[in-house]
Amino acid sequence: MTTATTTSTNRVSRDFDKPLWRRVLVSREMAIVALLVIVTLYAMTTVRGFGQPITLNYLLLDVAPILLIALPMTLVMITGEIDLSVGSMVGLASVVTGASVQAGIPFEIAALLALLVGVIGGAFNGFLVTTVGLPSLAVTIGTLALFRGLAVGVLGTTAVTDFPETWTALAKAKIAGTTIPYIMVPFLILLVVFVILLHFTPFGRGVYAVGLSKDAARFSGIHVERTKFLLFVLSGLVSAFAGIYFTLRFGSARGDNATGLELQVIAAVVLGGVSVFGGRGQIYGVVAAVLLIGVLSSALRLANATSDVINVITGVLLVVSVVGASILTWLQRARRRPGRPPRVSASTAS
Fold first, then answer.
1. Mean pLDDT of the chain, nearest integer
2. Nearest-CA neighbor of 86 among 102, 68, 111, 110?
3. pLDDT tens per residue, range 199-225
4. What are the residue boundaries of the structural domains of the chain, listed by start?
5. What backbone phi and psi angles, to 5 degrees, belong to 181?
6. Contact 278/38 with Cβ under 8 angstroms?
7. Contact status, residue 151 vs residue 92, Cβ threshold 8 Å
8. In sequence order, what are the residues at sequence separation of 6 or more whose Cβ sits closer than 8 angstroms to the Cβ of residue 110?
9. Tens of pLDDT, residues 18-49
10. Spatial contact of 134 and 116, defined as CB atoms under 8 Å apart
11. CATH of domain 2-336
């Protein structure tokens, strides 16, 4: 226990022993932001049609579910946990919405039922992880299959497409005078909420503390289990909201909606600088990573690249990001290894 606490203390002290400007500008998150700018400018100058306003509109429509789910996923992974069931929850929320509308329930009530299912699903994950004590990887792999099985079981191979035109049009509509879709409004609201929650509240500091060392956090008075439970509930709730948007955007509720979406979310969160071991991450880096993946996918599609090529490039980018971060961490530890004699300057020696 002493070793774990000492390691966590060293990690925190190393994070804050540099000026604020250096911690912000010389960071993995800022590198992702810079890469996003470079790739965007390159695509606008070399890929025909990428600079068109309609391209930005479709790009934001495509990445909106990933942007939404990545917000709570960032907090979950900072605590050292993971939620692999988010894609299946999107599909289940879509099916609940479609089945309810098919049964004659007004769309607004159907959407509330879908959000309630998201809360229940997130609470179920949180209960198994925090109360039962099971590892989140195993739990959410199980609920990934469970939620997807429920979604397919409710509708089978059929699809519900009879949704109010007002809502389906709103899901694809643009803000007046711009090419930005309306879905960015709730995303920006949630972005502000999660930024404040993570970076400007005691709860957020507790999230980082849990990821650094659960024992140290518990001895500091942080309710570790409650923190994780609330984050899994938030993950389920936001995933359900993304499922409602997904349904309206494509005008179809199916059991296989958003299959594989969880992998895109986790890839973006890790690429955005969140440590897979917990205790580290910034929301702006994750948002930049989601947009980077979206820009790459959009540019490659316009360049007539196949989906397999897009997946390969995204996977290579993620692997390079993780390996690069591991190499940098190893180099930093090698420079600070115990027993290394301190440097003595010429002025001090004289």
1. 86
2. 68
3. 999 999 999 999 999 999 999 899 999
4. 2-336
5. -70, 155
6. no
7. yes
8. 96, 97, 98, 100, 101
9. 565 555 666 788 888 998 999 999 999 998 88
10. no
11. 1.10.3470
